Amino acid sequence: MTPENAISVSGQSSIRGRMESEAASGEAIIIAPRRHPWRWIGGAVAVFLMWRIVNSMIYNENFGWDIVAEYLFSPVVLSGLGLTIWLTVVAMTLGIILGLVLAVMALSSNPMLRYPADVYLWLFRGTPVLVQLIFWYNLAALYPVIQFGLPFGDVLAEYSTNALITPYTAALLGLSLNEAAYMAEITRAGIASIDYGQEEAAKSLGMSRVKTLRRIILPQALRVIIPPTGNQVIGMLKMTSLVSVISLYDLLYSVQGVSARTFQVIPMLIVACAWYLLMTSILSIGQKYIEKLCARDAL
Amino acid sequence: MNAMVMARKVSKSFGALKVLDGIDFTLPKGEVTCLIGRSGSGKSTFLRCVNHLEEINGGEIYVDGSLIGYRRQGNVLYPLSESEIARQRLGIGMVFQRFNLFSHMTAIQNVIEAPVQVLGMNRDEAIERGKKLMTQVGLSDKLDAYPRQLSGGQQQRVAIARALAMNPKLMLFDEPTSALDPELVGEVLEVMRGLAETGMTMLIVTHEMSFAREVADSVAFMDQGKIVEYAPAAEFFGDPKEERTKAFLSRILKNAGSERAAA
């Protein structure tokens, strides 16, 4: 045994001796809980303010709660809600798929894939989505006719741009192309977070690039990709309200249509907000649940 | 042809740094060779060139008679396509320092992934074979464990089983025990020893000198991108010819000696 060991052994025995002597004195020691006086004061102030605000909301007739109740489940609002949900789902799906393609392009060693992806991100992240929506809606001003055909050959099909770009296609183009740029960044970060050793192991087993991505890299990258994608879905749900500028009857444009007839602006906005809040709340709960799953898997 | 690996004048640079400098090397079929040397001597890089995880800048490497990574026409080497290189890798198993198990898959899923996905093997058949390999590496009770639930030594043994599942004719080991806690090194070396006894051709980058002395047929010492000495194991350790080899061995053995004294 070395001298150091001998010292530490004797040190332990002296501590044990002290603990025994305190226990022998018979008095148990109690730890008092920490007091938080400011929490009580702050709580009292908050309750008072809440009471005043709720009171004013109930008794201020300008809120028009009866009108809110009248229109909350009206067919025109529900159909607007349906379009908002449809736009969110379709634009998000397209955005995720195109974002994945862009992420893979951006990570490619081939400059002819990498540079176009970079330019795409630069363009679509660098301009407001509102401007992009209006741009797609007015595409006909730029190209009145769209033709499909062989390069330098016959024209196979020809369409008037106005017939092709309906408000629906303009909305989907604007929302999903913009979303793709953000999803590309999220997906790229997710793929880049996977240790290169995983790819090397797959390579050494003779797996092709596509199989390595699909079977090895992406399933692991999903843990990193999914949580911020939840934020994007919630963002998309609210971003769809922009399509009101190209006169598409989403939730917001539907309630605006009603208030244009009835001049009840505030109550109709409350109707819209109630539905937005309900949907974002549901999405938030789903997001928390999925994030928990991802975190557990990441152990 | 009797050589499993044949390298001729292989050179490789990372920018201005010359990592491999004219490597000539032959590994006969059925033999086990250990590559040793200081870190930075190029031994891992050479190993990685053998299955084309690294591209070489000059020379040529043949595995079982086929030129790795290139097609030769006259005196020019044209790069092969990704899929052709992938096909060449099928016969070459590799075990990594950091195991690199697929962390979202259980042990048995790791083992059957490539046979099913690449070779198109029937899943039940692959599982059957995978179970045998897991038994061979002493982990028949860990089939459904995820990598994070396994110790380093167990992970490395799964990685060996995963490489063996492709029925390779050559196995490459890149410092397979360097990332392991000392008490786990033995179980991995035991599996490798058993594999050597089956007649597998093995190329092993390692710092385990006693393993090299016991198991390897021959040992190659690398320094500054060159193979300084390449000799049968007994001769290499018993009677090294080169000064640099002697200096390296005496330093290694002295370190090992002082570690033993400390323990």
TrEMBL record, chain A:
<feature type="transmembrane region" description="Helical">
    <location>
        <begin position="119"/>
        <end position="139"/>
    </location>
</feature>
<feature type="transmembrane region" description="Helical">
    <location>
        <begin position="40"/>
        <end position="59"/>
    </location>
</feature>
<keyword id="KW-0472">Membrane</keyword>
<keyword id="KW-0029">Amino-acid transport</keyword>
<keyword id="KW-0813">Transport</keyword>
<keyword id="KW-0812">Transmembrane</keyword>
<keyword id="KW-1133">Transmembrane helix</keyword>
<dbReference type="InterPro" id="IPR010065">
    <property type="entry name" value="AA_ABC_transptr_permease_3TM"/>
</dbReference>
<dbReference type="InterPro" id="IPR035906">
    <property type="entry name" value="MetI-like_sf"/>
</dbReference>
<keyword id="KW-1003">Cell membrane</keyword>
<dbReference type="Pfam" id="PF00528">
    <property type="entry name" value="BPD_transp_1"/>
</dbReference>
<dbReference type="InterPro" id="IPR043429">
    <property type="entry name" value="ArtM/GltK/GlnP/TcyL/YhdX-like"/>
</dbReference>
<protein>
    <submittedName>
        <fullName>Polar amino acid transport system permease protein</fullName>
    </submittedName>
</protein>
<feature type="transmembrane region" description="Helical">
    <location>
        <begin position="79"/>
        <end position="107"/>
    </location>
</feature>
<comment type="similarity">
    <text>Belongs to the binding-protein-dependent transport system permease family. HisMQ subfamily.</text>
</comment>
<feature type="domain" description="ABC transmembrane type-1">
    <location>
        <begin position="81"/>
        <end position="287"/>
    </location>
</feature>
<dbReference type="InterPro" id="IPR000515">
    <property type="entry name" value="MetI-like"/>
</dbReference>
<feature type="transmembrane region" description="Helical">
    <location>
        <begin position="159"/>
        <end position="178"/>
    </location>
</feature>
<feature type="transmembrane region" description="Helical">
    <location>
        <begin position="233"/>
        <end position="253"/>
    </location>
</feature>
<feature type="transmembrane region" description="Helical">
    <location>
        <begin position="265"/>
        <end position="286"/>
    </location>
</feature>
Automatic annotation (TrEMBL), chain B:
<dbReference type="InterPro" id="IPR030679">
    <property type="entry name" value="ABC_ATPase_HisP-typ"/>
</dbReference>
<dbReference type="GO" id="GO:0005524">
    <property type="term" value="F:ATP binding"/>
</dbReference>
<comment type="similarity">
    <text>Belongs to the ABC transporter superfamily.</text>
</comment>
<protein>
    <submittedName>
        <fullName>Polar amino acid transport system ATP-binding protein</fullName>
    </submittedName>
</protein>
<keyword id="KW-0813">Transport</keyword>
<dbReference type="InterPro" id="IPR017871">
    <property type="entry name" value="ABC_transporter-like_CS"/>
</dbReference>
<feature type="domain" description="ABC transporter">
    <location>
        <begin position="5"/>
        <end position="249"/>
    </location>
</feature>
<keyword id="KW-0547">Nucleotide-binding</keyword>
<dbReference type="InterPro" id="IPR003439">
    <property type="entry name" value="ABC_transporter-like_ATP-bd"/>
</dbReference>
<dbReference type="InterPro" id="IPR027417">
    <property type="entry name" value="P-loop_NTPase"/>
</dbReference>
<dbReference type="Pfam" id="PF00005">
    <property type="entry name" value="ABC_tran"/>
</dbReference>
<dbReference type="InterPro" id="IPR003593">
    <property type="entry name" value="AAA+_ATPase"/>
</dbReference>
<dbReference type="InterPro" id="IPR050086">
    <property type="entry name" value="MetN_ABC_transporter-like"/>
</dbReference>
<keyword id="KW-0067">ATP-binding</keyword>
